[in-house]
Amino acid sequence: MKAIRSDIKVSPHGGVVPILKKIKEFGIPQVIRACLGKRKEQSKYGYDDVFIAWVLTSLCGGTRLDHITKLKKKLNIIPGLKVPSHDTLGRVMKKLATEIEAKSTSGNKRTATTTFNENLGLNRMLIKASKRAGALNENRSYTLDIDATFIPTECRGAIRKNNVTDRVDVSKIGFNPMICLINELPVFISMRDGYASPAFEINKCVQNCLNLLDESNIKIGRVISDAAGYNKEMFEALHSKGIKFLVRFPYQSKMETFKSALDSCSNWKETEIRTANFNWTCEVGDVPYKMFDHYTENRVSTTWRVVAMRVPVECLTEDERIVKKINTEKLNLLAGKKKLKEAGKPYAEGKWSVIGRFKYKFYITNDFKKTCEELIIEYNKRGMAERVFSFMKSEFAWRLPPFMNMNENTVFMIAAALANNVFKGMVMLFKKKIPQIKLNTRLKEFQFVFIDVACAYIDKTYIFYNTDIEYELLI
Fold first, then answer.
1. What are the 10-residue block averages of pLDDT along the chain, 475 residues in total?
2. Is the C-alpha dihedral spanning 291, 293, 294, 299 positive or negative?
């Protein structure tokens, strides 16, 4: 048998072809140009070319800017596709960075300056492009989940220092961005430096996010947050817009008025609450609560509802406590010597507040219609946020900020979020015709099933090899 050399160019990422076609059909390039404007006329690549190229790079497994160079060689069969070099990609992203803001906060006789960056133009583009990709739509009411995540890095602006000795805390060097999520979609990113607490400027972040979502006619019916969202101004702003909120209530022992209301609560109900990780046999109840009143302004604060869940404190005799302490010390000693089998990181149950004979969990809300059980179960579903952060860091390179400056890395994080949201939209779209794709598929599985297929462009026709997926129906 004689081997014949062929001049036909074949791409190993043929699944990109129908994705690129849908991106153009949905008008995502036009959305990017409308939100970001045009580059100089002599520029070879527009903003839409740059962002779409990075989306395709991410879907093909790229995590670093220089990976786009390898992709350029593998996708050169697609006519009209503009893939810039990694130098151009980085330069354009840096140009889109906005000014960093700074705010000084005082507390415990210390003053700290926190820097943050909310690139409203890019966040607007993120929401509008996600909607065009089919990941968001106008015909439903969404829950907005607010949470912060930590991104370890030694980039400029990421350092967190000890305010007392002014020495670098080596264990916590990185960014601490606040992320607004709808399901598994990051829709707003507010970048903060390592000084920022989770509650830093949270009301401003939420209001900016809601304004941008409103511009795109995306309706938010409920906002959920951990204790960082315990903010009077945010509660009143959400309530005035008819938006329900559900936030973990940060109980403190000095809250005497609240403890009195809790002691007088007579609507305790025995129940069983099941979540994905726990099964609680407990009592639930609720009490009215006012955060504080503005007497000097002749204005009284709104009354909210605090939902409580309680279980009895474990009652041990003195001998039982001693035995338990000895056993715990033995286990800790063995664990320190690596002589115990590690079953993996346990799921954190969260902090309980011990008051008298019971330990409690509290949630504050302006929803007076749902039952206590429904609200507690709904709050516990917000564990999805941590999984989304894990996926974004491992699959879309949030753990690898490429630039030295914080505002430039904001651009990169939004570009990565766009890639994720386009990916989610394409999965929902192609699932209707391709049973091999699962709605909950992760990026690596999607690459294996859909993206990585040999494809050639012959006589203005795409030919796909060795696959049982009918790509021709998608293009």
1. 63 92 94 92 90 95 92 87 92 93 69 85 96 91 93 78 55 86 94 86 94 95 92 92 93 84 87 76 89 64 89 70 73 68 49 84 93 91 83 93 92 96 94 86 92 90 88 80
2. positive
Residue 66 and residue 107 in one domain: no
Whether residue 1 is contained in a domain is answered as no
Give the integer Cα–Cα distance in Å for 419 and 60.
Answer: 11
Q: Is the pTM of this model over 0.90?
A: no
Residue 345 is predicted with a pLDDT of 46
* Domain membership flag for residue 2: no
Is residue 342, in this structure, part of any structural domain at all? no
Residue whose C-alpha is closest to residue 281's, from 373, 186, 158: 373
Closest among 454, 446, 449 to 12, alpha carbons compared: 454
Is there a single domain that holds both residue 247 and residue 368? yes
* Shared domain check, 453 and 370: no
Stated as kind and residue range, the H or E segment containing 442 is none
DSSP letters for 360-385: EEEEEES--SS-HHHHHHHHHGGGHH
User: Does one domain contain both 85 and 118?
Assistant: no
Q: What pLDDT sits at residue 260? A: 85
Q: Are 186 and 215 in a shared domain?
A: yes
Domain span holding position 19: 10-95+431-474
